[in-house]
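Please go through the protein record below and explain what the tokens say about the fold. Record follows.
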Amino acid sequence: MDDGTGIPLSPLEPWIAEKIGRGKQSLSEKSLTAYQLARLRGTLRLARAKSAFYRRQRISADEISTLDDLACLPFTTPQDIQDDPLAFLCVSQDEIARVVTLDTSGTTGKPKRLFFTAADQELTIDFFRVGMSTFTRRGDRVLILLPVARPGSVGDLLFTALARLGAGGIPHGPMTNIDTALEALEATGAEVVVGSPAQVLALARQPGAQRLAVRCVLLTTDSVPASLARAVEHAWGCTVFNHYGMTEMGLGGGVECQARRGYHLREADLLFEVVDPATGRPLPEGETGEIVFTTLTRRGMPLIRYRTGDLSHFIPGPCQCGTVLRTLACVEGRIANRVTIGPHGVLTLAELDEALFAVPGVIDFRATIACKERDELYVDTRVAPGTGATAAADLQAAMMHIPFVRSALENDALSIRVEVRTQAPDTPPPLAKRLITDLR
């Protein structure tokens, strides 16, 4: 069903309508808001009663009469989880089915530990099933380039979800060798590929990959530069969709519909805000800020107003698919991936992404800022085999399209050094989020 534009309704809408008790009735903003408010108050009561951390925060459901009142509650930060993850538990440890340990570059060096019950993981499987149905057909073969080895890992949950959808998951796991992954893609005839942006791009730009009939790609685990998505689409003649999620969310947060203008969100399980990163003030639609979420249905380790560090905004106006669900613009980058150069200038990884992934043959890069006589931007770039000899000059020229870089070079506030290396098959881009390293 569509609204006359030819774009089908996001499958998340009827799924959410059923989850909140609407059955086959159409979803409305009023019914969704009432459901979210009730669930929010229930989560606050659970957290106050069972979580040592939130009990210390003195949160109370009595303070919440509308969703706008959420802004009066304190934030939860990654550091809070690093400091005392067990303080967030709301069930006995016997009920925990999966513990995820995330290494962090935070000030203490402590990892984050996240706890999930079997029911919490079931919620994620169900979201994956519905979200994948946006572009996955019954009988499709789906190459999974995500962690799959451990029960309850993201790839394992996706494999289960695909089976319920009537599709066949191919549990390859993160790429450790590009040639091996290409052989698996060719041997299985997979029509759909799911993986991290840099790893999928490395596969798509590998010589010989372009002849394979990939129909759709889902990019996840990191922000997706538009230039990278276009490069993947050009290589395979496919359609690229974006997924937004993080482990703290329960792995799944939102996915694009066929309109591909931003994520529709898992609004029966998660409540999203966009806030000013400096003041914490909630921002209106259209204004970019930090994404903050609150879990509504998770019982093992609920999180209230968790600061993600990701930047985005809610897109004003209805989506072309006709859903009443909000649309969150694709993540524009991370607050941490902004470096100051000179007295007033700021360079972001998102700007480098858009410029450099547009250069033919580029697979991945690492950006480092160091200070010698002046600030120096060092870009260590990996390119596909057979990339032309002009790659270094092309990269230099591409960076000149970034206004701040061009201005800093002209004012002698910055120098640039580019190194280009051919990507070895046995050292593909890592699965970890990319960042700018500041050595100053």
